[in-house]
Amino acid sequence: MKNRMNELVKQLNQYADAYYRLDSPLVSDAEYDKLYRDLVELETAHPDLVLPNSPSHRVGGKVLEGFSKYQHQYPLYSLQDAFSFEELAAFDRRVRKEFPHVTYICELKIDGLSISLTYEAGHLVVGATRGDGSIGENITENLKRVQDIPLTLPEPLDITVRGECYMPKASFGRVNQIRQEAGEVEFANPRNAAAGTLRQLDTRIVAKRGLATFLYQEASPTEADSQSHVLEKLTKLGFVTNQDYYLADTMEDVWHFIEDLAGRRQNLPYDIDGVVIKVNNLAVQEELGFTVKAPRWAIAYKFPAEEKEAEILSVDWTVGRTGVVTPTANLTPVQLAGTTVSRATLHNVDYIADKDIRLHDTVIVYKAGDIIPAVLSVVEAKRDQQEPLLIPTACPSCGSELRHYEDEVALRCINPLCPAQLKSKLEHFASRDAMNIAGLGPSIVEKLFSANLVHDVADIYQLSIEDLLTLEGFKEKSATKLYQAIQASKSNSAERLLFGLGIRHVGSKASKIVLENFVTVPRLAEASLEEIAVLDGIGAVIAESLTTYFGSEGAKTLLAELEASDVNLSYLGQKVSSDAQLAGMTIVLTGKLERLKRSEAKAKLESLGANVAGSVSKKTDLVVAGSDAGSKLAKAQELGIEVRDEAWLESL
Ligand code: AMP
Ligand code: ZN
């Protein structure tokens, strides 16, 4: 038993390493998942035998109460700064006075947070933040959720290593997109996002955020003789090291590396804020020693601050996908990180109010990586009698009144006929969980709008085959097919329609509940807030959102149009709705189900029209995760795929 578990853990870790760190999978996801399930089964039966390096430690949520202090055995140091070649040359002269023939290693200065990882007998026992250098915080549970940190090493070493934990630009974009759509405050930059994530008390959130690491230092005594050998050793032990380093014999060489880097840093998949230059030979490092707070053998060159002053000339307000209205400042042009910047985001109305940003203010604009420039703060000294910024009360796209909900930082346009929102609304309307109109994807929606054939979701029911034939790329057969799919959607049970309308807080489950009770959409539209809020599973939030929506003129027009096109507005009950409930969806099962057997779960999903697949990919629509779900769940989260639980499966 123990041997089998050992073997599984070893194999799974090797596969995960190949997948996450080396980016070259050794086995299929299906194969991985099978082994993972075998392991979890054994672990469930023998919880006392769970190995410390089991991949099952990486998933599953824990809500922590807080972080305890951690006293570093080897203190973390900071670095002396340099901002010019002259400062680097002065550093070089000091070093060469004692050691005329040194070689330097230039490493990227990753803009994240320093972390310290301590392994005992090869097992990760503590992961901590830097803190003040001698006392940090114990964030072991969170760091275990960072996929590229090894839980065990290939050798039973006692070792403490240091490095940087950061959020890749891609993860940052995804995380902020989600926050923006939810009306939440966005992270200002990847560094803040990484810091906020590592301080999360819910480890599941950490697992979802896609953090990564670069390790660069062995803090415990090492046998390596140079920094480049340390990097090699760390790589062999399974850590991710940054291979974009450079060995330089002179400061001129170092400077060339820096200049080259300045030109390509925008294209790196992570933010850097400079270059760390270290004496490569560790014996020389030791001889040079430390000042009170920093090593004498290293210096950090920092890129010039990517902040400039600019004047706000005007502000544009644009309506996004979910009706969120975002302010962008037009600025006097400034050079920032190698590009000319004349526009910067002001984030949202609350941000403007907090920072008291006014028209014609001189502000600090900054740019991090390839992220759009943002206004950081007002230069108060340069203000005289600036007028306050006019906050729109009407939607810039459709003119209807904007809402500022109490729980949101943003303004929102809730008009369902708002042109700026309509395209994405139509995409949602046609999507599988909603009206399920096969073939009506984003590119076709775009074509329909540019051809002026469609202005709102109701218009698609006016389309003829001839109309569709006028679109680029359509032939008789494809036009007929799309036409038929549109016609067929008219007889859907109305909870699909309701969900498809994309009303705030109203998901497919809530849509079903309210229509089971009110039966038709027009009747629901007449219902009072109290009548809706008393329903089981529906709270005041959903009820209010529904009444606000149906109270708007746009909604009334839309309903009338749909009715005139013979779109079914009634709930057709279990029978009809269920046989199409999961039609065409690709669903993946993972983890251990408590009440249903896996074969039963699969049969149930298939009977509802779903296609049950073995591994998670971009084509997966939904993942049903039981307890101890493994890599499939992690992958689903990484790809942003919806995840449901066993209770949901039973509720179908
Ligand atoms: P500073 O915070 O500006 O004093 O710079 C020191 C910090 O740079 C360290 O605490 C590390 O978190 C960070 N750093 C990033 N990359 C490296 C690297 N390759 N070598 C040393 N420190 C680095
Ligand atoms: Zn609008």
TrEMBL record:
Pfam families tied to this protein: BRCT, DNA_ligase_aden, DNA_ligase_ZBD, HHH_2, HHH_5, OB_DNA_ligase
Active site positions, chain numbering: K109 (n6-amp-lysine intermediate)
BRCT domain span: 577-652
One of the GO biological process terms: DNA repair
Cofactor list: Mg(2+); Mn(2+)
Gene3D superfamilies in the record: 5' to 3' exonuclease, C-terminal subdomain, 6.20.10.30, BRCT domain, DNA ligase/mRNA capping enzyme, Helix hairpin bin, Nucleic acid-binding proteins
Descriptive protein name: DNA ligase
Gene designation: ligA
